[in-house]
Amino acid sequence: MRAIFVKTTIVLGTSIVVGCASKPPVVVDNTPLVRAAMVTTKYSSTGFKGFMAQEGTQDSYTFPDKRRTNRTSKFTGSILSKIGGAQSTSDIIRMDKGVEWQVDNKAKQYQECAIGDCNGIGNFMSATFDAERQGEFESDAEADNELPPGCVITVTDQKFEVTKTGQQRDVNGFPAEEYQVDWRYNARDEEGGKLENLFKINIWTTPQTAEMTEALNVQDTFDASYSVALNDGYPDALTKALPRDGLALLERFFLDSLTDADLAKLKGMMANSPSIEGFPVSSKTKWDARNTTCAVEEEPEVEAKEDELNTDSLKGLLSSVSKKIVKQELDKKTAEKVREIELAPIFVYTVDVTAVKMADIHESQLSVPANYKLLTRR
Fold this sequence. Notes:
By secondary structure, the chain is α+β, with helices and mostly antiparallel strands. The chain has one domain. Helix content is 24%, strand content 37%. The strands form two sheets. It has a twelve-stranded mixed sheet with strand order 9-10-11-12-13-3-4-5-6-7-8-14. It has a two-stranded antiparallel sheet with strand order 1-2. Strand 9 and strand 10 form a beta hairpin. Helix 8 runs antiparallel to helix 9 (335-343). The longest helix is centred in the middle third of the chain and has 21 residues, at 210-230. It starts with 14 loop residues before the first strand and ends with a strand. Residues 1-19, 120-125, 127-147 and 296-300 have low confidence and may be disordered.
């Protein structure tokens, strides 16, 4: 796969303009070429229960203290695929400057934040967060996160197990072997209502070859310093099993809801699990969840706004996404369709690596183009 670059970027350094009166000028990037570790991937997501399903490609260019990631993506669901259009975004992380930029190349605009303070996702979740900020989705955070009086939730089962299956196969030209992660978090209330979270993660890793060594050493150096800067404390077992985007999804909708004690216990189990050896070239994460804890008598339903989507809690997400999809699929609004939505996974997230190598990138690509508009700085 080839890298996706900004088509008409005015950059630092000398530029030569080539063209004629009848065509837009072509801007040539004459900034120096610099050597980077390049990893190319393709990814897909079912979205949340089918809402905002998406697929795309990603190229990351990594240095010991900086990284640029270019993404192309498109919606694949029955509704948004007809109106969403293709997206082109970039994340630029500058450890040497203590700053991150998230860039929308189509709109020529970006946001700036301190290391770790951006959304850090850039895939379909960034569209969700953008919609939240613009007021397209409404929610009642206080009501969704507040338990009924006297409601007590008790954790009944929590585990994180890594197993090397012994299965082997070819993944995009890489000889790979399989690991499976079984991750569960279950609880119940005093009335027998259950909260069930089940994560199934399949990872295929390849041995590090001589050709990959330089690129992976650069990746490891950057990842180590970036993890320290994020200070999230997640052990290698999780960060190796999940791409950073996938981890951000779980933080937003699951990990951030755990108590400090439960999160510390989970991190301990992760740290003590068997190591995942080799470089991950394919991963598939499936998250199933059910929540019937602390059920309260339903209030008379008030007509919801057309674009209402609750992203403040797992229970609110499950409820609002199901309602939204049913409304979008009015012609399929049957008991079978409702049941299908209820039983569908929260999301399935798949990533496949297609190339790992050292490659050249123009130095200008490590900064935001001067003609892009700054939206927010935080």
